[in-house]
Amino acid sequence: PAAIHRADYRPPEWLVPDVELDFDLAAERTRVGARLTVQRNGDHDAPLRLDGEGLKLIEVKVDGKPAEHLHAQDALTIPIVGDEAVVETLVEIAPGANTQLMGLYESGGILCTQCEAEGFRRITFFPDRPDVLSRYRVRMHADKILYPILLANGDPVAHGDEEGGRHWAEWTDPFPKPCYLFALVAGDLVANQDSFITRSGRTVALGIWVREGDIGKTGHAMESLKAAMAWDERVYGREYDLAMFNIVAVADFNFGAMENKGLNIFNSRYVLADPDTATDADYDAVAGVVAHEYFHNWSGNRVTCRDWFQLSLKEGFTVFRDQQFSADLGSAAVKRIDDVRALRAAQFPEDAGPLAHPVRPDSYIEISNFYTATVYNKGAELIRMMHSLLGAEKFRAGTDLYFDRHDGTAATCEDFAKALEDASGIDLARFRRWYSQAGTPRVRASLTHHAGEGRARLVLEQTVPATPGQPRKAPVPIPLKIALFDELTGQKYTDRLVLLEEKRQDLLFEGIGGRPILSINRDFSAPVIIETDRKVDDLAFLSARDDNPFARYEAMQQLMLETLVTAVSTGSADHKPVIEAIRQTLTNPAMDPAFIAESVLLPTEAFVGDHMLVVDPDAIHAAREKLRSDIGDELESQWRAAYASSSANRFEYSPAAKGARRLRTVALGYLMAADAEGAPAMALMQFENADNMTDRQGALGNLVNSDTTERQTALGAFYERYQENPLVLDKWFTVQALSMREDTVDKVAALARHPDFLLANPNRVRSLVGAFTANQRAFHHRSGRGYRFLGDMILTIDPLNPQTAARLIPALGRWRRFDETRGQMMKAELERIIATPNLSRDAFEQATKSLG
Ligand code: DPP
Ligand code: ZN
Asked: Which parts of the sequence belong to the Peptidase M1 alanyl aminopeptidase Ig-like fold domain (predicted)?
């Protein structure tokens, strides 16, 4: 398969201002009639070329008459005389047989669509590119019993009954949109209905559509939607523009959710929540994703992307917006910790490996492979840095200008930067390098103190590492929030935003009498790796006394990380400083329990691995477990106290109650790690008495690491209680895939043969196989059985669902990071994948690039 290059972009040869679609819906066979008004764009004599994949073509007409055409290689080419025509096609598709979950497909008896990025071509012939914007009128016909509800984009126009127990409905969407935002849903659904009054006084009808049994789990999504609508008016001045907004939940979905105009389609895991089945983290994720998709109505739909290389234009910006929203609604400090954790777990390794690519990529083979942590999460960090550089007010002026200037058009990342620049007067010329250069910059910070002169000097040096196809890099502007504290008094000498623009910069600070301690990249103001030579005592100081919560968390993480890296590389380490720092945090009455719970958690095994030259999964596991058990042991009475003080409340979804639940399970984890007396019984009691999923899953997640009868009891009971609930059953698979037990690799292989393991359901695949690849010790089992298992899974899933298969491949691409034996076994799996006949384009690209 050939690569597509950003530099080759050309405007579309034909525009399609108006589209009328007519669907005769049925699972086995759906007929799609399309009537396109096409217009020649520019001075050329090229024929009309429409994309189409897996479509059975029945007829083609131009201006009402059967027309000459060529149907070959996923395209329909039609010569057109003149500059305008009406082109009609009729095709047949089979939604029930669509396992890729792209285009029109069936999920649990519901017919639904997913068109981003290039799924519309699997529904009808069309110029399937985001810079062709059309007004849609859509008519659906279907069996009235099987599909009583018929939804599409925009507003309903009319509906009626037909012969043979069928009915029809027609919808129109007045806003021109690219075809990737097209959607329809037909199914036996019920709605949680509500309304929202916009700031200009228009009433919007809101509906969250689910299967009948799930209606009781839609309240949180509805509250989140209304909060998001109000927030976008208040913070960005963005008002909703149609009379109706619908969300539909489906069980089989490749992504998290999709922002189709007026008709968002969601993976049910980001809609359904009640205390018995969803954890606090699930509630937060529902709110975050509902907001994200809603925010796309402006950042994505009203202003869309010119081409798919610009994907971060909508995704990076919208992730930043949903992060701000969640921070405003809950604990901003904990939200920032979560976001940075996600960035470091997924994006930093991507940026350091064979699949590294810029936030605005230069080429791709299959665009589905570029819905990555780099485009989404690093993209959001870029927006966040511009927000810091401009300040909130000028940033808002910039986004206002951007929305004004580009409303109704398909824009580029460059357009966004230019609007911010024009509105603020701040030069972002160099900042644009962040869009074009891959790799995580490293900043080395060395602070020296001249006590006699009352002066401190900070030297900052940056390097941007080489990445595939980009051997040499220019320095990028790095906004760093920096503070200095007096070692003895704790007094803050200075607190400011420094812009490191050059390769090296020197900063002088006056009036620094006592020895200063450096706090840097506060709030994680830039997505970089900081290297300092701060001593253990300095980190302990910051973890207790820094007034920036993120910096406190970060100092503790650094302390833990250094301890673990020392233990792994030398065989032992002094655990005392970490234990004392945790003691300080744990016993500080001024701190929020939610924050305490996050900051006393050790970095993951994978994160420790990212800081080693050669990852030794077994040694990392052993060192981390030793530290965990010492922390549990030394602070046993504090953990018991924390456990007791955060127990025994009835469920409530409030920040305080969430924090208490979080701390309770973290405390339990340390007691379990230390083999404290009665800990497994405490865990089982928590499991059995819980009135909510957070406590129940928390207990199970701890028990599952142990070798106790309580483990068996809890796993069995959980399965019995929830076997009919797919989203909760996913959790049952996940906790076992994440187990730290030695036998996890074999348990996971056995679970893949469990009757409830469904290859066709992406959530289930991710719950077991995806989670397993995140379990460093188990996946990298020295036998290579983990690699073999993953290779088998990828090859089994690829023919069904290439997107889901391809997303499992990057785990194997980390082969350079491991010892020779493991590395060779990982490469062998990649080679086996590449050698497989009829491999998808998705898997081919990921596997060949991963081999490097
Ligand atoms: N555009 C979707 C999102 O919201 C992904 N298909 O990220
Ligand atoms: Zn998005």
From this structure: 439-532
How many of the other CB atoms lie within 10 Å of CB of 720?
8
Question: Is the CB of residue 367 below 6 angstroms from any atom belonging to ligand 1?
Answer: no
**How far, in whole angstroms, is CA 639 from its chain's centroid?**
33
Residue-wise pLDDT for 187-212, tens only, equals 999 999 999 999 999 999 999 999 99
CATH superfamily of 442-526: Aminopeptidase N, middle-beta domain (2.60.40.1840)
Give dist(CA 152, CA 491) in Å, integer: 60
**Mean pLDDT (whole number) for 634-644:** 97
Instruction: Respond yes or no: is residue 293 known to be catalytic.
Output: yes
Alpha carbon of 264 to ligand 1 centroid (Å): 10
* Ligand 2: centre distance to CA 295 (Å): 9
Distance 116 CA to ligand 1 centre (A): 8
Which are the contacts of 87, defined by CB distance < 8 A and separation ≥ 6?
A: 34, 35, 36, 38, 48, 60, 61, 62, 67, 78, 80
- CA 689 remoteness from chain centre: 33
> How many CB atoms lie under 10 A from the CB of residue 65?
8
Q: Which of 101, 247, 259 to mutate for ligand 1's pocket (most ligand atoms within 8 Å of CB)?
A: 259
How many C-beta atoms surround the C-beta of residue 502 within 10 A?
12
- For ligand 1, whether the C-beta of 259 sits within 6 Å is yes
Residue 218's nearest CA partner among 206, 228, 204 is 206
Select the CATH number that applies to the domain covering 4-188 from these four: 2.60.40.1730, 3.40.50.720, 3.30.1130.10, 1.20.120.50: 2.60.40.1730
* Domain 723-852 annotated CATH 1.25.50.10: yes
Our answer on whether the CB atom of 695 is closer than 6 Å to any ligand 1 atom is: no
Query: Would the CB of 293 count as within 6 Å of ligand 1?
Result: yes
Which ligand is located closest to the Cα atom of residue 115? Answer: 1
User: Residues within 5 Å of ion ligand 2 by Cβ?
Assistant: 315, 318
Cα angle 345, 346, 351; round to 5? 115
